[in-house]
Amino acid sequence: MERLVLALLSTALAGTPIALVFESNGYVADLATHVGEKVALRHCSSFKCDELHSSARSEVVAVVGMPRNISILQQLPGLKLLQSSHYMYARLGSVPAQATVAKYDVAWHQYGVEPIAEFVIAAAFQWTYRLPSTSRRFTSCAFGTGAPSECPSDSSLTAHPTLMNKTMGVLGYGNIGQAVAKRASALGMKILATRRHGPFSSWLINDNDKLLAESDFVAVTVPGSVRGLINRTSLALMKKDAVLIPVSANPVDFDALYEALLTGSMGAVLDVWPQGCWHFPDMFCGPPYTEQAQPYSDDIANLQNVLLLPGVAMRDDRFWSNSAKYVGENLVALVNGAPLKGVVRNASTNALRPTKLSFV
Asked: Is the pTM higher than 0.85?
């Protein structure tokens, strides 16, 4: 079905407005069900759009997703809309002034709390069990000629810690923090959580230092408006083998964290970044590619005590399905001259209500 939809996209009628889509095949196919014949979709790789002939560039009215090479936007004279497929968007200074910039304005307070909390628990499980690496150790020695003569002892292959009786520290006991604590408690973990205002209890306290010193995992779930909560002082208070799991970048001093990861035995699961293509809310990749295009530093990828991720916490399958519907409605609205949703910046030549587009 997906291949059929994509094939139909390439046979759109001449003169139909075109939207370039820098997302997966599945996303394009899903998006096609929401735009019908109103817009011709062209699937592009993350960096370029080989199928777009120069003669068709003037018919491109929208770009969906984040092209890694942002200069492609300068080659589209008729561009009216840069539509992000998620809650982040391209750095506004890199987008031509004539284009409106919009994002998928997901109501994360209703949708995102549970997926983010589940991600924190999944990160703790992955860190504790490390099943893929255990599987690689096992299969490399247990199958093939002479197996299992090269396998280490069973205790070496199978011993692992558990989450039971470990302490989950929750810095910021708001909606996400409460959801994390509920899940961690159900697993038999001890909970320490902090917030500014009581009433407090044996596990809900207002002492961040105590939480940092006693927690095996520290989930940083304070609002993104909080800056620098995790710094050199707070990192020094953590257990030597504790694991930091932030859900937003601003509360973390990444320079201090990087030093701690280099020199200590603490760990981190990093799904948020202070700059570059994975930065919330404004992304920047290039061109030309610069240090800003990197998550943080090339060296961090070589560390064994950090798990690097591209922002998976809230962006599950349901998220992307809802995104395709939302973006499809915006593309149809653009063509019909109706108001757009999720506008981050209006085009310099547009009013808030865009003029209906006309195509011959």
From this structure: yes
